[in-house]
């Protein structure tokens, strides 16, 4: 009889312990859920922000705003206080709706061309607008080496203009495509589209490292001719330049 009573008492105690443990667990889960829902203030872009814009100007121009989001939705490294970026500048273009990340805001001296775009000595960075087809269907990326093929009219025999195509430059380093740059400063954003040049065609700005003595030549070619980029293998040598290709020699004679 005593053993039965003892067994019942032990069962009651175990049941109470299990109930208390369950209550503690449920309360803890509720607290964790509430903590995840707790609103926190973060700064976001409400209008497009171009690279180089200072945090102060971004606020004055109404490009950024402070909003509340659930704590679990706040991105790691998000700007929580304006003082974190007031004296800094955007390292990349920032799109509306994007939470501002501290890693994308750099000191003023880091926004100079040689910080965001590592330009070799005796070269200059030059951007030209190209559609995807003319940049190897969009496979040209920062860090690649490309060659530039130019087609344009040149004076032929008798003074008549003749369409000609030829390599303009070879083994040129790509510094950036759109807003995505080959950078030694900070992590970059996604490539952006620009509308420029001929008609309403969507073009992408491709930024190239051009030898100083060839810059004006490339600008003239972009203004008056048609340019294609070719993607080169790593450490490839220049292809033989050859003669101009025209309608009279594009098909070799047998």
Summarize the topology:
Elements: H1 2-37, E1 39-45, H2 55-60, E2 64-70, E3 88-90, E4 105-107, H3 113-116, E5 123-130, E6 145-155, E7 161-177, E8 180-181, E9 204-211, H4 215-224, E10 226-231
Antiparallel strand pairs: 1-2, 3-4, 5-9, 6-7, 6-10, 7-8, 7-9
Describe the protein's architecture and organization.
The chain is α+β, with helices and mostly antiparallel strands. The chain has 2 domains: about 40-110, Type Iii Antifreeze Protein Isoform Hplc 12, CATH 3.90.1210.10; about 115-230. The chain has 4 helices and 10 strands. The strands form 3 sheets. Strands 5, 6, 7, 8, 9 and 10 form a 6-stranded antiparallel sheet that branches. Strands 1-2 form a two-stranded antiparallel ribbon. The longest helix is centred in the N-terminal third of the chain and has 36 residues, at about 1-35.
């Amino acid at each position: 009889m005593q053993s039965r009573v003892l067994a019942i008492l032990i069962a009651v105690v175990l049941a109470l312990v299990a109930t208390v443990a369950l209550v503690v667990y449920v309360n803890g889960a509720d607290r964790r859920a509430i903590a995840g829902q707790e609103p926190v203030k973060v700064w976001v872009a409400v209008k497009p922000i171009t690279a180089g814009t200072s945090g102060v100007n971004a606020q004055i121009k109404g490009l950024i705003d402070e909003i509340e989001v659930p704590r679990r939705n706040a991105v790691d490294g998000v700007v929580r206080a304006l003082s974190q970026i007031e004296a800094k500048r955007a390292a990349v273009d920032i799109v509306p709706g994007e939470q501002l990340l501290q890693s994308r805001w750099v000191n003023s001296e880091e926004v100079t061309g040689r910080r965001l775009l590592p330009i070799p000595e005796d070269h200059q960075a030059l951007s030209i607008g190209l559609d995807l087809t003319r940049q190897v269907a969009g496979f040209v990326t920062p860090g690649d080496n490309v060659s530039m093929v130019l087609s344009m009219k040149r004076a032929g025999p008798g003074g008549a203009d003749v369409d000609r195509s030829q390599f303009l430059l070879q083994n040129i380093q790509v510094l950036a495509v759109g807003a995505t740059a080959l950078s030694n400063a900070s992590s970059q954003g996604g490539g952006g589209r620009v509308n420029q040049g001929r008609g309403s065609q969507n073009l992408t700005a491709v930024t190239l490292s051009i030898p100083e003595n060839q810059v004006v030549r490339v600008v003239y070619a972009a203004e008056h001719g048609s340019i294609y980029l070719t993607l080169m293998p790593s450490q490839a040598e220049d292809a033989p330049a050859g003669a101009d290709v025209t309608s009279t020699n594009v098909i070799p004679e047998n």
